Amino acid sequence: MAYELVWIAGAIGATLPALKRRLELSRAKHPSLAGHSRMAKRLARWIPGYAYDEAAFFACDGAPNDVVQQRRAGFFALAGRLQGKAPLSIALTQEAREGLPDLRFTGAYRVPYQFSPYLRQHLQVGGFVQSSEGVSVTDLDGKRYIDLTGSYGVNVMGMDFYKSCIAAGCAIAQDLGPVLGAYHPCVADNVARLQQISGLDAVSFHMSGTEAVMQAVRLARYHTGKRHLVRFCGAYHGWWEDVQPGPGNPLPPRETYTLRDMHEASLKVLRTRRDIACVLINPLQALHPNKNAPGDSTLLDSSRSAGYDRAAYTRWLQQVREVCTERGIVLIFDEVFLGFRLAAAGAQEYFGVKADLVTYGKTLGGGLPVGVVCGKKELMQRFREDRPADICFARGTFNAHPYVMGAMNEFLRRLETPEISGLYRDLDATWDTRRERFNARMRAEDLPLAAANMSSVWTLSYTRPSRYNWMLQYYLRDHGLALSWVGTGRFIFSLNFTDADFEDMLERCVQAGLQMRRDGWWWQAPGLTNKSIKRGLLREMLGQLVKHR
Hints:
Blueprint: H1 2-28, H2 37-46, H3 54-59, H4 65-85, H5 87-96, H6 101-108, H7 116-122, E1 129-133, E2 136-139, E3 144-147, H8 159-173, H9 186-198, E4 202-206, H10 209-224, E5 228-232, E6 256-259, H11 264-272, E7 276-281, H12 310-327, E8 330-334, H13 346-351, E9 357-361, E10 371-375, H14 377-380, E11 383-384, E12 387-391, H15 402-415, H16 418-421, H17 427-444, E13 449-454, E14 457-462, H18 472-478, E15 481-482, E16 491-492, H19 499-518, H20 530-547
Parallel strand pairs: 3-15, 5-6, 5-7, 7-8, 8-9
Antiparallel strand pairs: 1-2, 2-3, 4-10, 9-10, 11-12, 13-14, 14-16
Helix pairs in contact: 1-11, 8-15, 9-15, 18-19
């Protein structure tokens, strides 16, 4: 018996450290579904699919009949205006839908799924444009839209800038053409310039930002001999399995710890675990810590929020840097989206924190597709001198494509010109002032809208409870504003916006909001709250589950 007790005590003693580490890991995860990818995937499979009929589409918030009729009239008037302005663009979009799954996806997920079928049946928008100039794009019908898409992060300097970079890049590479394997001479200049910008020793070229992040993580694992990576709740690092462990990824998370951004418990995990190869930081997360990208498809109520505190996030990055240095963890800055937007030398310069590896993409290609990894010499090495068969392989047919390298070379050279360097002067102050101007105007017009910003990247929030905030994206389009498929969740301005351009955009936002209010979409029942909206949605879902058992 004594032997058995000793054995049990020993077993418990051996288990306790593992349980302690597991508890610490759980505490470091964000308490919301953003921090629990397995649970989020289970919930995604549980949520029932259903669609509102015409009656519910206009009255799911209990609006009285006069408001319902107001909404219905406004909706079909809006649909008619959009169709009348862009018949050719809409027609081509409908024609191409079956052959372009991306069009079907983005079209369906612009709004909460309950509204989507009826909306897509009666209100169409175009997915094609044919030209760009200044801060605008023009569709197939000649309709001009002020561009707030930012080309998903590519368009930092203005579309004319990139068109000229592409033209210059083609001229640089035209004598060589699409010869692959050997490098065009401009590659050497690109490497030298990127070394200077990043403050790091070596550079590798890839075909996309996702591939660049994949290679950075692979190199970190190779050199540390550890398997796990740390990402933070809500941060986006591309679409591959290890960095997208929740809904959207058919595979379960494997060697990924998704921790709480800006939290001491996460630092404790980094200090105590021995299996962490690298930490991934997407600086954009400072705008909405621990929250996913704010798309309009999740605008179920008005609880969306964002806010940016540069000083606080700088302190957080300094703390992460310190613990990574202490523990031999590779710190990776994923600047694919924000690189060259905050400062000419990126987030490292902007926050004053050095990374071990940095990934770039999007804008760095001068308008053409690219991914880049910059890193310390010892981390960028892909083989071991003393173990020649032990390698870290990474190649791609189109890596360092001559035309891409030419456009990149033109981009990097122009960064040093007075015209471009001037765009960074007082950048935060410029965009903070514009955001204050936007918010003041919304308050003056009594519109339930407020913007938060990280420099020229904005998130729009709603200040009063409503089930219909997602409708605003269509009114903005009606007033000549082009948004990405996430809708009002993200405005991405190019740095070439003048004060006059901004005022034009602001006036269009105001007029769109006023029209939406006149059409009855922001009617509020007495006592309506975001909590009551969510409870009503939960009852709907439970009712659908019971109905289809």
